[in-house]
């Protein structure tokens, strides 16, 4: 926590001399420079007595022994360096030089309030009492802890003194105390938004959160974390770090530390967000050091730390040799800064023997280089002597960094901002006239709030070439750098810039990170760490929330049948497009194959060969009957009906070929009507044959009148009437709901069925029903006439053929309805071929056998004699 005060002096050449902070607590001088003196409060410089305590009431005295946080000594040097540059730059402030005072707040509200009150008095500790004008306050630079701003604003805001904060401020801009506050720390919303984008970019949705036990951290938990939750981030734990104490509460602090350590190491979260202040790293180092005394599994290594920009590397002298490898691979947000080479040169020439005005350097030097400054010849014989030849650049970064840190860079810019505001005041015509007439800056002394407006309008380019300006809320217009921490065995580390946030760009592009430049903790072997409550749901599965667990924890059941998920962690599975189907793993959609009964597959070839073979057999039978047309066995039972039946059976076999091949519109229109009409002709011929046989035997009886019905007229009437009825039904079918080319995408899982749709199932079954009716009549008549003499009739063969025919088509219906796709077509073709072949074999095979194999039987006289 740092407060830096900017009082003004009006006597040219005057040097303000005072001790740092409370003279009872500090035994140091301060930097002296020029006419205008800058003073302030810095509490990163930890001052301890032999009892070692962080908080001490101002009335309590401290011994001369001092412990200095060596890393924050750079903040003082950044302040001195900025003052030195400004004083050596005559174009910024002419005829005026700057100086400063430093106060320590000890992370204590008591010390912060006391220092703020001291700034309001000219001598000692008498608020509102000013006996001279030697220490007139212009502005205060404070930081980096957030609590100190509210504490100092409570006092200084009442007197309307401008304040510049170089750390994050947890206060809002709606109170009288904070309206005069300027922040060198960018808007914290940009940082929190950047952390969220970082989590989402790396898909870290299962994290742990560690905070301090203060108001700033409470605001982070109450306001920021719920926003992260809405974006799909959830938390394994949220814990508070123990309060740092070195007094009677040390036992409780250690117990709390072990409790936090167990929570961290038992957590399955690989990413931890730590919201802290500049001294938080000291607490983390303590936790890591405590883990060395426990089981190796308790060490806090192998976690990816995401640290806020308020934090920085600090350590106590007793932590000098403690391991720092636990932060290897960590990511931290940092105030954007540029390299100042002149500052490094300024550090390189520091020497405890030549820098007489630096009241901190000897304590810093002793603790840094572990040496002593001898005060006598006896002292020179004991321990290591500080020669002054030691070099700061030889120190590891864990002790002192040569490169200006983000907080030091903010202090540097804060001093320049105040200087440029003073320059604006100095150039004012009214102020120039006041100075000339009165010899003092009474106007600013009486109205310090006017300096606030000059400070708010400041805009300049610093020595690194970076523009510095404030927005309407008094916050610096800047972004954050994303730093990757790389540690080395010699207690050194390197801050590698791997990204940045830019508040000027759209929110969806405000974060840029170079993933390849990041060094991850050694545990991950340079692979991108995963931080999930459970493994990702792989493609082919979907997320299902676990009862009683955070929403980031879920099961991964497989997708239901017919659905897929093609990405990881999908909430629901989805259906494939109609022309695609899921693969066995259910993670991709495969285009469906177009399916139809083709000549290129074994089933289609087999049926086609079978149809052609039966057709050839039918032609052969027809040739045999034509060749032997003069024989009694051919002439018996109406020769023309026999030829008509054979031709219709031939067409039945060839009709089956209409069902094979890729369906087209014409084929669909012809298939069922042709099948129905041709089969009706065949069955009507059989019916006519059966009726003719029955009538012929009835006509042989004496006095029978049935003889007049015998002849071609009856058979032709039967055949033509049956065909006419079937043809009429087919015409009505084609005229109303004709068959059409159909694409069925749903019946088969992996196929698109290209088929001919009957159009009207009623008409289709009416056609089949009429054929069945004719077959039933034929079967009935043949069955009744089965006992007629065998030589002169074929009723037994017709009976058996009709039995085969009816059996085929009765089994066809359930088989057809239970089949899918091209197999429905195959069932119908097989029924056509088998029923047709049944008629051909049962009726004509006995006759062909007699004609070919028993030619003597076909003689009419022999037949009569046998009878």
Describe the structure.
This protein is α/β, with parallel strands linked by helices and 867 residues long. The protein has four domains: 2-186 and 405-469, Rossmann fold, CATH 3.40.50.2300; 188-308 and 313-335 and 479-524, Response regulator (Rossmann fold, 3-Layer(aba) Sandwich), CATH 3.40.50; 534-588, Ribbon (Tumor Necrosis Factor Receptor, subunit A, domain 2); 615-660 and 672-737 and 761-866, Rhopdopsin 7-helix transmembrane proteins (Up-down Bundle), CATH 1.20.1070. Helix content is 41%, strand content 13%. It has 23 helices and 27 strands. Strands 10-9-11-12-13-16-17-18 form an eight-stranded mixed beta sheet, with helices on both faces. Strands 1, 3, 5, 6, 7 and 8 form a six-stranded mixed beta sheet that branches. Strands 25-27-26 form a three-stranded mixed beta sheet. A hairpin with a 5-residue loop joins strand 14 and strand 15 (467-469). Helix 2 packs parallel to helix 3, helix 6 (250-266) packs across helix 7 and helix 18 packs parallel to helix 20 (761-784). The longest helix is centred in the last third of the chain and has 35 residues, at 665-699. It is rod-shaped. It starts with a strand and ends with a helix.
